[in-house]
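Friendly challenge for the regulars: who can give me the structure tokens for this chain first? No prize, just bragging rights.
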Amino acid sequence: MLLFSFLIVSGLCLLTYGSDALVRGAEALALRLGLPPLVLGLTIVAWGTSSPELVVSIQSSLNSQPDIALGNVIGSNIFNVCIILGITALICPIACDRQILRFDMPFMIGVSVMMVYLLADGSLSRVESIAFVCVLVAYTGWLIVSGLKQPVAEDEGLKDALQPKTSQTIFMELVQVILGLVLLVIGSELLLKGAIGMARAYELSEAIIGLTIVAAGTSMPELATSVTAALKNSPGIAIGNVVGSNIFNILGILGLTGCVLPLQAGNITTVDLGMALGSSLFLWPLLYSQSKLSRSEGVLLIGLYLGYLSWIWP
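First reply, four minutes later:
Bragging rights claimed.
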């Protein structure tokens, strides 16, 4: 058991460092291109912090462990909304950008409905996976083009949260990206070995492990990014980070994983799918009421997650 715990912790550390290196390098390259902060948060930062989920899900699929691949995505989306936004709101109430309220949040809910519908038959085919990827490409293209045409107002706190701390050459930024990818692959392998070993030792289903331990572990980069931004009095990045990550988790991670190998839902239940969709639906009116997420609402989201855990944990 000690070995499995060591593998999980080691894997999470490598995933965290790998994701950080990848995001730092990608951020610097994107800032050179003049991307607005909001677009950067919804794309580079969100996708970079979702890279552990991508690598872990693809590895799980290739290892014939679809419950972990699916549980990782579904559990991460639940964790992102309830825990990451909940903790961030406790540190500092989160103001929400109008674009996110009017377009990105409804879009996240829409792709969540799409996921629940396509997984209702217990599987995700290669054709359905390709459809996910096509929607992601279209969404990304629209986001970047519209962001460049109508840049958001400057937010110095947000800019400082995203700005790399040291000036680097393009070569070093590329090295960071490559190093990050290598660490992600190694870390995902260690995490999966530890998680599977622990699941068998405690006689837990792979779905439970994927929905909880693996999902929470691979979401640590999103949590670190959002908490850091909140401590710097720029918690708005947390919304863009979570919304962008959840969209990428569904369209990118499920899409790319399903393209590699069609997925079977196995022990993923309607409760898990319902919670993934329901938490997003629950978040929208909270943000829309006053265009922000208060501390009391953050506590409510954390309580919702704890209630879900008590329901699914054996």
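The chain has a mean pLDDT of 82. The first strand starts at residue 94 and ends at 95. Your move, everyone else.
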